[in-house]
Amino acid sequence: MRATVLATGGAGYIGSHVAAALLAAGHQVVILDDFSNSRPEVIDRINAIGPGRAVLVRGDVRDGAILDALFGAHRIDAVIHLAGLKAVGESVEKPLLYQKVNVGGAVALFEAMLRHGVMRLVFSSSATVYGMPERMPVTEDARLGTTNPYGRTKLAIEGIIDDVAVAHRDFAAISLRYFNPVGAHASGTLGEDPRGVPNNLFPYIAQTAAGVRERVRVFGDDYPTRDGTGIRDYIHVVDLAEGHVAALEHLLRGDDVEGRNRPINLGCGKGTSVLEALAAFRRAVGTDIPFQVVARRPGDVPEVVADPGLAEQLLGWRAKRGLAQMCADHWAFQRRRMRELG
Ligand code: NAD
Ligand code: UFG
Which of 127, 275, 305, 308 is spaced 20 to 30 Å from 240 by Cα? Predict the structure, then answer.
């Protein structure tokens, strides 16, 4: 089953790995990206990995004319919608921008899909839709609720997709709720390269190990967890990308998928504390990584770990790469970036 897939945001951190995984699985890929948070050279890197080449359309996912031209020029079988803004802190400062780009982008895209009869969608959702989960590990039927404007856009979009699938009974969607994606492609050419001071733990550790930052700030060691620091379910970005291919192929096979938007967790099902992540990264780097415990970060929850059982049962997918691999690949990409930047 060879499909032509539109990946919006396909030049981004997760999207570039999704594009590479789609090519590796023999699919054709069209990337729509405005490079607001990525670089055009990523497309060359995806294509250097191959096999085959992704086609680039440069533009904003909110632009109906660009979408019409794209769907007119390529016979798209399915869309993987990753484009959007993702910084929780920024979303608190600019809630309307997040509504405009994330919700506005989704609505424009879904309208264009319906205009062109494209009825298969995989959406990038997030574990942030679970807010402060009541039970661990988190299953897809857990109560939803989020603590920030970014999360509210994810919840809103999941709801819009639910409604579209009710109104158009031949529409089929999966909302993938990612836990904490980290790591990089084995080639060392694709990875996460945040601009400015990283918000997330792994990029911050990597930059500290590289000497760009002085020390890692551990946000609180008084949580009710085994060592007092926050526990998360880190997942290798290549495993995550392969989860998208599995979701796509499930939708294309078409058994009992129409008329619904099914939420599916993508995580490992294994919790790692901040101190454990630091220790694993230290082993990958081979030198000490300075850190200092500071106050809790407002809005953080003690523990978020996925139950990934549904993904395995429905998609036949499970994460294969462990924490040591996540650290080694993340570090290899960081080192390469440092060499490139001189
Ligand atoms: P990213 O910023 O690296 O990638 C997003 C891509 O979308 C970028 O290439 C950017 O240029 C592009 N983009 C943004 N707005 C656009 C627009 N209006 N039109 C066209 N392109 C646009 O982020 P990422 O980490 O790869 O995240 C991808 C998706 O996964 C996002 O929807 C994000 O919310 C979701 N997600 C990410 C995480 C995470 O921890 N990284 C966790 C859960 C969910
Ligand atoms: N942490 C530190 N120091 C740092 C950064 C983070 O100690 O410099 C801690 C946090 O307190 C937390 C853990 O490391 O305990 C992970 O924090 P991240 O910021 O890496 O990840 P979060 O789980 O807070 O959030 C991420 C994404 C969100 C997404 C969420 C759920 O940033 O967008 O995962 O998928 F919603």
Answer: 275
